[in-house]
Design brief:
This protein is mainly alpha-helical. It is 71% helix and 2% strand. The chain is built from 13 helices and two strands. The chain has a two-stranded antiparallel ribbon with strand order 1-2. Strand 1 and strand 2 form a beta hairpin. The longest helix has 28 residues, at 125-152.
Length: 219
């Protein structure tokens, strides 16, 4: 829900002004800008409502999860990255700023998903730290690959016009480093994600498959 809300708002005319998402017209193109804003707001607040209604976890764990989600979705994560991304559009961006954008705008959602699941499953602190490193690397790899697909992807597969980041003068890895170095950086981040899982054995095989999906995906 939080991811869906972020995409609805990201597509708005005041942000990326995209007409298509996943091969279909974006929410504001179908329902209008006002309803799209409200739909995004509703999804975010509904996510918190559902978390408070969780009966499976211990009260202390639920409270910690709420804090993790609020922090990751707010100014310390998703919103913070989006603000810097918006203010950077059309200007010169250095590597540190670009990495900040990606680690927060995209990576924060990975951290939320990985850490909250681990907390509810009773993970130890050292396991949480390792999973956090995994999420950081995987989130950055995903966004770099997303930047690459904006130039190399097929419109029918990625579900939006190729080159939309370029059109909107967005800060991307290919724009800053070129495609070859961007591919290298994406692979390095994937290697970092796999390294973070070394102590988990076969329990983390699904997480390893996610790494392969991220680097090999064409949509």
């Amino acid at each position: 829900m939080i991811h869906a809300y972020s995409l609805i708002h990201d597509d708005l005319p005041a942000m990326d002004n995209d007409d298509y998402r996943r091969g279909k017209l974006t929410s504001h193109r179908v329902f209008g800008e006002a309803i799209a804003v409200l739909a995004g707001d509703a999804l975010l607040t509904l996510a918190f409502q559902l978390l408070t209604e969780n009966k499976a976890g211990r009260p202390g764990d639920i409270l910690r999860v709420l804090h993790e989600v609020a922090q990751g979705a707010g100014t310390g994560g998703l919103i913070g990255g989006q603000v810097v991304d918006t203010l950077s559009a059309g200007g010169e961006v250095d590597e540190a700023t670009l990495e900040y954008i990606h680690r927060n705008k995209t990576g924060a959602l990975y951290r939320i998903a990985i850490r909250t699941g681990a907390i509810l499953a009773g993970a130890r602190e050292e396991e949480l730290e390792a999973l956090s490193r995994y999420a950081e690397h995987l989130g950055l790899a995903f966004q770099i690959k997303d930047d690459i697909l904006d130039l190399e992807g097929e419109e029918k597969k990625i579900g939006k016009p190729v080159g939309s980041d370029l059109k909107n003068k967005k800060a991307t890895y290919p724009a800053l480093f070129g495609l070859e170095k961007s591919w290298k950086k994406a692979r390095l981040e994937c290697a970092g994600a796999l390294s973070a899982l070394e102590d988990f054995g076969g329990q983390a095989d699904f997480l390893r498959l996610l790494v392969q999906f991220v680097i090999n995906r064409d949509y």
